[in-house]
Predict the structure.
Amino acid sequence: MRYAAVVLAWAAMLLEAQSPRLLRVPVWREGDNGEAGGLAAAELRATVAGASARVVRVLGPEDHLLVLLVLDMTEELSLADLAREALGAEVRALPGHVYIAVLRAQDGLKVLVDPTSEREPVLRAIRELPVSGKAGLLESLPAALKLADAIQNRSAVRVALLYVTDSNVYNYRDDYINPVVNWSDQHDLSRRFPEGLIKEKIARLHRQVTAYQTPLAIVHLNYRSDRVNEAYQSGLMQLSASLGGSSQFCRSRHEIPQALAAALTRLRRMHRVDLEAPPRRDGLVQVQIHTESGSLTYRDRFVLP
């Protein structure tokens, strides 16, 4: 019996070693207005780390999509109400093959509604969301990406992460404001670079999340123009871009419905292209995908475990 157990364990390890590692690449047709149709695996040519890569599978806009909707609204109630109303209208208009899960970012990532194609539980969670507490985007992002990756690694479904946030860098539990060390010294670097801590936090977070493959979209409801918040918002933009997603920052109330509609429309038009990764290559790799039927936009850098 012991010999059989050892043989089975070795067999499982061998199968795991032989199974191809996949890169799940979010891809969009450039200039796609929703009428171009899906991409076919046969029309794509891809390379990973300079070597030809097999296109294992392509999922397009007609295939199932799961949007993990993470709500991070803690400050101005009037903006939150406008966002909830606009978000509700967009959710009602989604086609039946789009599934939504609702999560809240405050005090650790919390699931409010499990993935569902039913709209009423999602609308209820959006309506009843409390607008209070501390901002949670930065702390909850790794857990949200880990959850999203786990879902798409085990299922033939497109998965995307959408944060709707009004987060203010001054409203986090952790202090990301660089304190002035010596107020009497006009040459004190802490006085000249107050955004240093938030930049360091974003850089650490960027290194942590680039191993994930789920695209990140961010809709920020309230753009702020002070120096530290601008550094924070620039960091959010970099995070979403590095993960193949998009970010929108609303400078006025009337931009909020447009931003939410644009974010969900873009996610609906997303393709998921699964590529076979090189068997003996780790770390950062560059991806290239080509088609003769038009230009593509896609995430081109991934970290292989």
Observations:
- The chain has two domains: 19-60+272-304, 65-268.
- The chain is about 35% helix and 25% strand.
- Confidence is low (pLDDT under 50) at residues 1-18.
